[in-house]
Structures are given as C-alpha cells and as structure tokens.
Amino acid sequence: MTFSGTWKVDHSDNYEKFMEQMGINLVKRKLAAHDNLKITLEQTGNTFHVKEVSAFRTLELDFTLGVTFEYSLADGTELSGAWVMEGEMLKGSFTRKDNGKVLTTTRQIVGDELVQSYSYEGVDAKRIFKRS
C-alpha cells in the first residue's frame, strides 16, 4: 500500500483536548483547530517526502522508515523519533525534547481517507483527511 497523494484535513475528533494535553495554549489551540492542513506524501519504498501546508507554516521533510530524525511541531515543540511500518499502518514514536514524554502517531488509509491518530499522556485524537 502506498500513502502517496495529497490529503486535506476534513474533520478532527478530540483534537483540541489532545493539544491541551500537549501544553498548547488556548489561542494556538483555537487557531490549529481551523488550520486547513494539507499533507502531500510521496512514498518510494521505505523513504517518504512530506510537505505540510497550513495557515501557519509550510514544512517539507524527508524520512526513511526506522531511521530517527528531528521534527518541530507548528507550536515549536521539538521532537525526535522515527516512523515504522506495522502491516499497512505507519506508526511514529516521537520523544519530546523538553520533557522526555512520548507522542505516538499513526497514519493509515481507511477507504478513501487518511486517518492520522495521536496519543499523548492518555489522550487520544484523530484527524481525518480526504484526497484533494
């Protein structure tokens, strides 16, 4: 299965509560809830090129499955971690540099949607993307 394509956020589930648990302030949470995020994924074997475009920033990064890399969230939170493939699901485990706590993220194609799930300190959330 390939994750390649351009995906635009359609809706979110428990995303604001997740951001609150991450320590993101109220103003940034309200703005992020309406960020119109678009993700373009290009998968070639075990390597990925990702472009994220939102109301706040444009970010491009490359990663290889199983190889640790550095990443910053839109609010500036710095993380270090890696993506791996578990069956047909991408699973990322990222450690926050400021407090050592782990953020787990998964991406999977469900029907014609990209479902991106987050788990941090007991709070789970999802963002559902449609092909654009």
From TrEMBL:
Belongs to the calycin superfamily. Fatty-acid binding protein (FABP) family. This is Cytosolic fatty-acid binding proteins domain-containing protein. Gene3D superfamilies: 2.40.128.20. GO terms for molecular function: lipid binding. Residues 5-22 form the Cytosolic fatty-acid binding proteins domain. Keywords: Transport. It comes from Pygocentrus nattereri. InterPro entries: Calycin (IPR012674), Fatty_acid-bd (IPR000463), ILBP (IPR031259), Lipocln_cytosolic_FA-bd_dom (IPR000566).
